[in-house]
Amino acid sequence: MKILVCISVVPDTTSKISIDSSKGFIDVQGLTYIVGPYDDYALSRAIELKESNGADVVVLHMGTSESEPLIRKCLALGADSAVRIDGIAKNSYQLAKEIASYVEDNPFDLILMGKEAIDYNSGQTHGIVAGLLKMTHFSPVMQLNIDGSNLTLEVEIDGGKAEVSCQLPAVLGCQEPIAEWKIPSMRGIMTARTKEIKILAPSIPSTQALISEEINETNRKQIMIPSDQLQVLVDYLKQDVQL
Amino acid sequence: MKKIAIFIDFKGTELSSYTRTLLGFADTFFGSEVAYYLFSFAGPKQASIPQLKGSVIGYQINAGNSLFAETTELRKLGDQISALSIDEIWLSKSNTSDSVAGIISATLGFQIVPNIKQITQKGDSYLIQKSIFSGKATAHSELSSSHFVGIFPKGFGSDSNAASVEVNFESLDLETSKKYSIIKVDTHEGSIPLPEASIVVGAGRGMKDPGNWGIIEELAQTLHAATACSKPVSDINWRPHHEHVGQTGIKIAPKLYIACGISGAIQHLAGVNGSGKIVVINQDPEAPFFKHADYGIVGDLFDVVPRLTKILKEI
Ligand SMILES: Cc1cc2nc3c(=O)[nH]c(=O)nc-3n(C[C@H](O)[C@H](O)[C@H](O)COP(=O)(O)OP(=O)(O)OC[C@H]3O[C@@H](n4cnc5c(N)ncnc54)[C@H](O)[C@@H]3O)c2cc1C
Ligand SMILES: Nc1ncnc2c1ncn2[C@@H]1O[C@H](COP(=O)(O)O)[C@@H](O)[C@H]1O
């Protein structure tokens, strides 16, 4: 079985996001980057499946060479090889096109992604990839088991969860508690050094309908109200949210 | 004239509250120069909806299963939407909306814009504010307004007080290939589901004991709000796990979030930053949450919360 795990590389969840006003973008100085936490869950489950059922696990990332140490970490965790599409996707659609075009040339039985990347929180890439490749799609998946070509999944639905069974191939967006997070072993780190990271040029030109974009910090009013003047709070809320 | 497809949801035979607010918003946004195509999965054949200024055609999608539509079905739906020459698609964010938006836009080549906080028209383009970095920042974009799929948080817009009209929903049969089966469905019974609530009251370790939650529940009931909690509170089983909001829990984006006895750790904020307005009640003036609040009250929650509930009951 061949499993593809797509990873995003994003600022650490505890990062304070500030804006570099000269660039109109977030200030990347001093930010620590990590593999997206949901993608980490997806990768961990792929590695568990490799250990229990046997599988070839390939990690795919679209990004610059600065992401290579994190791709290397995925290899150290147990992925067999990696592919980096050298470029920055402008939106989920372009990213999904790139992933789908790679999969058309290199078929996979199972494609795992995180439920969403924690930078732009779109949660769309897996759905678009499934649509492009005409593969079954579920997200957010909280449990994943495989028996032959049959998948049993626990999927979060609005106000609850559902257990479903379906056939491979499938594209899934993952979230906890699908697997235990893993730490690379010394041996893993050693063997990762010789594993291949294939670098591919992006194949699809960006179709950007975006005309311009500027980013701001989300600012709150921070109005303090004395605790004996709750009526003032209620008056504000009547105005703001039509209580 | 623009053709807008809107995906609408029902609770039983009634329009869901977030569909009502989205339709209410669309009505003021587009005015009369628009044709609406309303699509529902598993909705009724006839339903009353708020009267809209534009024309309305309703479709009831007949997919194999109401819970999840399949890729092949959604691709067919994409083809139908394309045959109707729809210009843009609007939907509310839900756990299942991502499949719908993703697969349909894959067939149409439309671009998806998620987490919309605000949208205004500027000539032929849209000015959109969307929430990014789990609400820590906002992107202001200008983009072309055609071939567009907008995803709005639940509760976006405002309730329309327009009169109701009856709409018939024409069946749209998507032949199904039945690629999956449902083994079991579990839903949390009772209270308002957290991701659907337009007001949420959250409480944390400051509550001291699970037996103290009565005052939180009373405040929530008064506001027709859902209740939420911080992670440590669900970890020690003071509250059910499905109430836990934050980085590792549910992400909510209600109109109003009231946080009581929660310190405002960054992991908690990651789940609530998308809220319209945030009220923080905490006895510690140094609590980090106050920096992320619209309104802050320094005080003992056991004193403040009951008094707040009392005032709210009187309006
Ligand atoms: C990887 C990771 C993931 C995490 N994910 C999440 C997550 O998803 N969600 C989450 O919530 N947390 C998460 N956490 C935990 C988070 O870091 C905080 O520990 C947690 O949010 C604190 O919960 P709390 O505010 O209820 O408790 P505390 O930090 O103990 O705060 C209690 C607050 O109550 C106030 N208080 C006490 N008594 C009163 C009173 N009588 N009246 C008014 N105020 C009072 C105190 O001043 C204090 O500010 C995560 C942590 C890690 C490391
Ligand atoms: N640059 C990227 N390269 C590879 N996969 C990605 C990238 N960005 C996002 N993904 C995957 O797509 C999922 C959903 O991301 P998004 O649609 O951007 O929220 C993530 O959880 C990743 O698994």
Describe the structure.
The complex is a heterodimer of chains A (243) and B (315). Chain A has helices at residues 37-53, 68-77, 92-105, 125-133, 186-192, 230-241; strands at 2-6, 9-11, 19-20, 25-26, 33-35, 56-63, 81-86, 110-114, 136-147, 150-157, 160-167, 170-174, 197-200, 210-217, 223-224. Chain A has one domain: 3-Layer(aba) Sandwich (Rossmann fold). In chain A, the strands form three sheets. Chain A has a nine-stranded mixed sheet, sandwiched between helices. In chain A, strands 2-5 form a two-stranded antiparallel sheet. A two-stranded antiparallel sheet of chain A has the order 3-4. Chain A is an alpha/beta fold. By secondary structure, chain B is of the alpha/beta class. Chain B has two domains: 2-173, Rossmann fold; 194-314, Rossmann fold, CATH 3.40.50.1220. Chain B is 23% helix and 35% strand. Chain B contains seven helices and 19 strands. Chain B has helices spanning 17-30, 71-83, 97-108, 214-222, 231-235, 266-272, 301-313; strands at residues 2-8, 10-11, 14-15, 34-41, 46-50, 55-62, 88-92, 111-113, 116-122, 125-132, 137-144, 148-152, 164-173, 180-187, 199-203, 226-229, 256-260, 277-282, 295-298. An eight-stranded mixed sheet of chain B has the order 5-13-6-4-1-7-12-8, sandwiched between helices. The longest helix of chain B has 14 residues, at 17-30. Chain B is globular. The mean pLDDT of chain B is 90. The interface between A and B is large, with 80 and 88 residues. The complex binds flavin-adenine dinucleotide and adenosine monophosphate.
